[in-house]
Every structure is written in C-alpha cells, then in structure tokens.
Amino acid sequence: MSSWTNLKWLPNPASIHDYPALTVGLSLFTFILLIVDVASENALSHKFSLYPEALGELDLNRVSFYPLFHSGLFHWFLNVLTLFQPLAIFEKTHGTVYTGITLNLLAVLTALQYCIAGYWLYPGTHAIGLSALVFSFLAWLAYKEHFVRPNIVLYRQEGSEIKLPTLFAPVAYLFISMILLPGSSFWGHLAGLFAGYFMALDYMKVLYPPAKVILWIEKKVDPLIQCLQGVVVYYKEEDATHVRSAGYTPISTVDVESSVSVVAEASASASEFHGEGHVLGA
C-alpha cells in the first residue's frame, strides 16, 4: 500500500523539539494571531483578508499575509493539522529559510490566480487561512511521489484493488473538502493546487534568491539559530543545497520526528535502506 495512506497527521508533542523550526513556528504564530484577532473582534483578519480587488488596488499586505489569519479555532486547527506533515517534510529536505521563501511565493502565486479569476467570478468574496497552502504542498508531494509510487491503493480485498493515481490525489481531496466543508473556498483551494503543481514542475526556481543570499541571511541571524537548538530543529541552507541537488527524497524515507540531518539519512539509506522505515505520507 502506498505510504500516502499511512500519513501520521498529528505531531507527537513529546518529540516536538525534533520537528523543523519553521513548521512549528508557523503553527504557533498563527495560533497567537488567532487569539489576538478574536480579542480585537476580527480586526486583523478583516485588515489582511484577500479579495479579488486587492490586486488592482495594489494592497500587497493582503496578497502576501492572508494565509496567516483564520476565522476561528476549528478553521485554524484543521489547516495546521493538514499542513503540518507536508510542510515538515518539505522543510527537512529543502531548508528552513528556503521553505519560508517558498511559503511566501506560493501565497502570492495563489493570490494572483484568486484575484484575477475572482474579478469576474466572485467579486467581493474574502478569503483567509492556510488551506490553499495545504493544497499547494499536497500537489507538490503528489507530483514528486508519483514517479516513485504511481498509484495509491484505496481498497484491497481478495486480489481486487481500487487505485487512485498519486498525481491526481490532491484533486480528489479538493472535491472531498468541497463536499464535506461547503463553506470553504473552492477557488482558493484550486488556485493553491495549481501553484503547487507549478512549484513541482520547477517553474518557481527563477523566483528564488541565489543560495549565497540565503547563506548571508543565515549568517546574520546565527545567534538566533543557536538559541533554537534543543527547542526545534533548524535546517541550514548549506546542508539543504546538497539534498535539493540530489533530487527528490521519497516521503517513506523522511522521518520528520528525527533531528538527524537529511544528508546523513540519505547516505545511510543508500547503504542500508531495504524498504523499511518510518512511513509518512498524505
């Protein structure tokens, strides 16, 4: 059975110090913003929610920051729950700062699509939350993983199987979420999905700063990085560059609860891996 069906969505609080820094930080930061927003009678979410006219008005704060705010505790919890593992996998294999840049690029690319389509289809509609990014990272994972595992086995009994192509699994999730959560933003999720496939096809590469710029940033904030040791795991650009250049790491070989460097894991798996390991997926 595909590792995608064995996803352990909920992080283990006992080993939270072994999770990637940005993944943990984003979850906590958005929760704090939720509390502040509720206390201010939703003033923050109203100020930063995305709507189609925001692009024409050049309201860049809305275009960039809308994912950080949520309509309530359930909205926040559901988004963080579904984003945590895919984002942790990405951060561990791509680096912490690189992942932060990716989040912003995906948010903007999603917003551009949402605003352009919404100008005609749904003017005046507002959107907030991390859910579009959930679909972006699921799309990225699906595209990369389908080369390793072309199908997800949904059901197996007495020799018969029902399979779903891994590449299109996020599309199925999109329609399932539309049915189960009718109040959710279908168009926002669809835009996030397109942005994720766009990233998976490496079309976003031209938008990233050179690695030396990220290394310079890390050098400047190194005292803060050192403070994170023992609290969460920071993945440096120097190590992540080697992992990214080596190609895609199948999710069945990435243990987001391990603080061991992916470089070391990749080396070990090359000589010892025989198809076993901590299975993660979506």
Automatic annotation (TrEMBL):
Domain Peptidase S54 rhomboid residue range list: 60-201
Catalytic activity: Cleaves type-1 transmembrane domains using a catalytic dyad composed of serine and histidine that are contributed by different transmembrane domains
A GO molecular function held by the record: serine-type endopeptidase activity
Membrane-spanning segments: 21-44, 64-84, 96-121, 127-143, 164-181
Membrane protein topology class: Multi-pass membrane protein
Subcellular location(s) per record: Golgi apparatus, cis-Golgi network membrane
EC number(s) on file: 3.4.21.105
Pfam families named among the record's database cross-references: Rhomboid (PF01694)
Chief location category: Golgi
Domain of life of the source: Eukaryota
Keywords from the UniProt entry: Hydrolase, Membrane, Protease, Transmembrane, Transmembrane helix
GO cellular component entries: Golgi apparatus; membrane; nuclear periphery
GO biological process: proteolysis
InterPro entries (alphabetical): Peptidase_S54_rhomboid_dom, Rhomboid-like_sf
Protein purpose: Probable rhomboid-type serine protease that catalyzes intramembrane proteolysis.
Family membership: Belongs to the peptidase S54 family.
Name listed for the protein in its UniProt record: Rhomboid-type serine protease 2
Gene: RBD2
